C-alpha cells in the first residue's frame, strides 16, 4: 500500500516509523515531513493545512490511505474532503473533530451524558464572564473555546488575573476567533494521565497510558510548552483506574458522540486528571498526542496499518491489539529559548551514535537534512525515545542517548519520567 501521512513533527515521525515496519506498506509520503522523516518517507512540500493540495496529490498518485495527524486539518474537514473523492482517510470527520476544536462543545457533551469533568460555565460575552468571576473561588481556569496551539488555557490565581485573561482572549483576541467564546472552569488537582484510544465508533481500544511534562524547566517550572518529554506507562494509571475510565469515560464518550450523530473514527485522546473524587476529563484531543505518541507507538506490537484499516472499515472489534509490557521514555531536546524566541540552523551531531543502541530511537520534531547532515529547524528539535523493561531503566537509557547528541543552545529537562 501507498500511504500519505499529513504533518511534520515528532508525532508524525513516530507514525511513519511504525507504519514503515508493516510488510504491507510499499511507500510512504509525508506532507510536509522533516529531516528525520525523510529517511523513511518521501517528503512533499504541501502544508498540513492545505486540504486542496493534499486531496489533489492523493488523487493524482492514487494513494491507498491518507493519515491526518494534526488538529487543524482535522477540524477544517480534511478527512471529509478526502472521503468525498473516494480516498480512504484515517482520522475523524469535521463534525467529530469538534470534540477537540470546541471546548464548549466537549464540556456540554460531558454534562449532557454525565461524563466526569470539572464544573464550568460558557460565555460569549466578556461582561457576563467578568461578572461571574467576581463571585468565584480561586484559582480558576479560563479557556479559549477553539484551537489555540495548546496555549489557550490560563490558570488564574485571583480575580484580577482572571479578568485580564478574559480581556486578552475575548477583547484583544490573542487567539483570534478561537476566543470568541470562553469556558470558565473549576480548578482541579491531581496527577495528569494521557490515554490515547483507537476507535471506529463502535469499539474503543485504549492504548497504553502515558504522562507528559508540559513545563519548560525541571520540577515543572517555567513556561508551558508543547511537551518536554513523556513516559509510558503512567504509575498512577492502575488497572482499577483503567476499568473506571473505560466504564465511566471512554465508552460513554463513544456512545455520546454516536447519539449526537457525530460518530468518531480515529484516535481519541483522553486528557485525564486523577482527582480525589476519581478520574475526570481535562480535555479531549481528536488525534494522537505529541510527544505521547513517541512513547506509545514504540510499545505497540500489532501492525499499525492493520489497525488503521480496521478503524476505517469499522471492524476494530475483530482484531487483537498487543503491547509490550516494558516502558518507554522520550526526552525532548529543544532549541534554547523555546517556547519563546530561539534560533535555528545549527548542525546536530551524534544522532547515529545514540541510535547505535537498538533500544533507542530518535524521533525528529524540527530538523532539516542537507547533504546527509541534520540541522535544527524548530523549537522542539528531537525526541530521544528509549525502550526498556521498566521505567527506571528506560530513563537511564534515554539520557545516555541524549548525552551523545549535541547542537548549539540545546535545552532539555533532566527529570523526565520522575513524577
Ligand atoms: P487543556 O489544554 O485543557 O488540557 O489544558 C492544558 C493544561 O492546563 C492541562 O494539561 C492542565 O495542566 C491544566 N488544566 C486545564 N484544565 C484544568 C483544570 N480544570 N484544573 C486544573 N488544571 C487544568
Ligand atoms: N501533548 C499534548 C497534545 O498533544 O496535545
Name some characteristics of this structure.
single chain; alpha+beta; Rossmann fold; Dna Ligase, domain 1; D-amino Acid Aminotransferase, Chain A, domain 1; six-stranded antiparallel β-sheet; 24 strands; binds adenosine monophosphate
Verbal overview:
The chain contains 13 helices and 24 strands. By secondary structure, the chain is α+β, with helices and mostly antiparallel strands. The strands form six sheets. Strands 12, 15, 18, 20, 23 and 24 form a six-stranded antiparallel sheet that branches. The protein has a five-stranded parallel sheet with strand order 3-2-1-4-5, sandwiched between helices. A hairpin with an 8-residue loop joins β7 (140-144) and β8 (153-156). The relative contact order is 0.14. The structure holds adenosine monophosphate and glycine. Adenosine monophosphate binds at residues 118, 141, 150, 153, 185-188, 192, 271, 282-283.
